[in-house]
Amino acid sequence: MSESALLDADNIYLDGKEHYIRTGCGSVSVMVYGDHDKPALITYPDLALNYKSCFQGLFFCPEAASLLLHNFCIYHISPPGHELGAAEISSEDPIPSVEDLADQIIEILNYFGLGAVMCMGVMAGAYILSLFATKYRERVLGLILVSPLCKAPSWTEWFYNKVMSNLLYFYGVCGLLKECLLQRYFSKEVRGNAEVPESEIVQACKRLLDDRKCKNVLRFLHAINQRPDITDGLKRLKCRTLIFVGDSSPFHSEALYMTSKLDRRYSALVEVQGCGSMVTEEQPHAMLIPMEYFLMGYGLYRPCYFSESPRSPLSPSCISPELLSPESMGLKLKPIKTRVSVPLEV
């Protein structure tokens, strides 16, 4: 692998620009990385997170960064009040619904003059982008969803969210709330226990959570806890969809359910073993090969100087089936319809 290529990818990702965009339901922060002339990839994080705490692990994985930054200009959208250093949103501002947040995305695309975009979302962010795709199908090229939601909250999730709402309201971003969020994000293996210390990614996430304003998180949580079921809309989607979920994620069954409701001709599910919900941070390398195959359907490839990587196909036209075995990837793959030999509509 070329060292200069790694440095180039790092420099591109460190050279981002933050935009504050006024929309119909408040101001929103968008961090933009890369060449504006390239196709757009928009991201949306989970509750209490932003691009740094939700996608940094993936984009700091050299092979994944090269694949994405070589092919896309990245637009990291933060939920209102979730960007780094965000001030507390005024209590006089109305609390947006999930519909408002989805509509906010179309305003962002119009602001930047973007047409159809690739979308990547995690948990609540995956729901927002899926809702956006059902409402504005012509503006979505494809969906890469991590531990996605599509149904209204179950009684268990609703109660759990109410507990977090009360903690936020009375105690702010306290230690107990952080533990609730960490259980949502990560597997118990990286959260640690009495014998095993928590991993560095968990420690880093805790530090980043300290920056969150409790009222801002509460507003997003309120919207997510009132979300409607969008299953019927999923059936009408024709864009290609790639779903990742950790087998230890509390949303594992939700991801399986969502996959079953999508058109099998255009969708694929990747279950990541020994991983929680936030695959982008806990096991970002597990996303590489599925994303490569997924993007090949759009004629997008990794730059050739990364072809020496053991996790990369030797060439775009020569794909080894052995690379998709659970033994080589540490993954359980459900039927994938994203091989180059299968013609798919975009």
TrEMBL record:
The keyword Transmembrane helix applies. It comes from Arachis hypogaea (Peanut). Belongs to the NDRG family. SUPFAM superfamilies: alpha/beta-Hydrolases. Gene3D superfamilies: alpha/beta hydrolase. It holds the Pfam family Ndr. Keywords: Membrane, Transmembrane, Transmembrane helix. The chain crosses the membrane at residues 111-133. The keyword Acyltransferase does not apply. This is Pollen-specific protein.
